[in-house]
Design goal:
Elements: E1 9-14, H1 34-41, E2 48-53, E3 74-77, E4 80-83, E5 109-113, H2 136-142, E6 147-153, H3 155-168, E7 172-181, H4 189-199, E8 203-205
Parallel strand pairs: 1-2, 1-6, 2-5, 6-7, 7-8
Antiparallel strand pairs: 3-4
Helix pairs in contact: 3-4
The structure holds pyrazine-2-carboxylic acid and zinc ion (ZN).
Length: 212
């Protein structure tokens, strides 16, 4: 079997932060279970980049900052539909830190996103206006990366949008399903989005397929 991971491959670790794990502000069921999977496969890659959701306290994505609205309501801000979340991943707080068991010392680069008050950023590549770049595309292309492997939280939000943008930007994209966990609200969203990723050309794999 040929290894899927070649010299032009990078691992992207998406938002493996305390607030997305059990006990956190936007806890994803079993979110912490991605950690041992990611720690195990990290060493296979010549390049590992990670993202952190990193919001100001007055961020527009927090339900608490919209009077009369509750978590999971949708509002429109500057023509963009915005789902409202609990306050999460506030810059500099413990909730925004990587899960303590994640081998974050091995990351080559860390990208923080969602830092502007009036604009959310699910994708590691583009802000939610689908125009403004985070810079990750140019970093990866500058290092001649053509194949990206995504893992992290949440499968159906930040991993999902990163994978779709990755394909649109010309990368060959793999999602490591057992290295991800999803929010699945409303129920069925997770499966719908995995199906959409496959339709768009993303390869959804298991971490066991990575070993040559
Ligand atoms: C995320 C909801 C809000 C994620 C970030 O990392 O998937 N989800 N902000
Ligand atoms: Zn967020």
């Amino acid at each position: 079997m040929v290894s899927l991971v070649d010299s032009k491959s990078a691992l992207l670790v998406i938002d493996v932060q305390n607030d997305f794990c059990p006990g956190g502000q936007l806890a994803v069921e079993e979110g912490h279970r991605v950690v041992p999977v990611i720690n195990r496969i990290m060493g296979l890659f010549g390049l590992v980049a990670a993202t952190q959701d990193w919001h100001p306290a007055d961020h527009l994505s927090f339900a608490a900052n919209h009077s009369g609205k509750k978590v999971f309501d949708t509002v429109e801000v500057c023509g963009i539909d915005q789902i409202l979340w609990p306050e999460h991943c506030i810059a500099g707080t413990r909730g925004a830190e990587f899960h303590p068991d994640l081998h974050s010392a091995a990351f080559d680069m860390i990208l923080r996103k969602g830092r502007q008050k009036e604009l959310d950023s699910y994708s590691a590549f583009l802000e939610n206006d689908h125009r403004r770049a985070t810079g990750l595309e140019f970093y990866l292309k500058g290092l001649e990366v053509s194949r990206i492997f995504l893992c992290g939280i949440a499968t159906d939000v930040c991993v999902y949008y990163s994978a779709l943008d990755g394909v649109a930007l010309g990368f060959e994209v793999f999602v490591i399903e057992d290295g991800c966990r999803g929010i699945d609200t409303p129920p069925g969203t997770l499966k719908e989005r995995i199906d959409k990723l496959i339709t768009e050309g993303v390869k959804v794999i298991n971490s066991k397929e990575l070993k040559a």
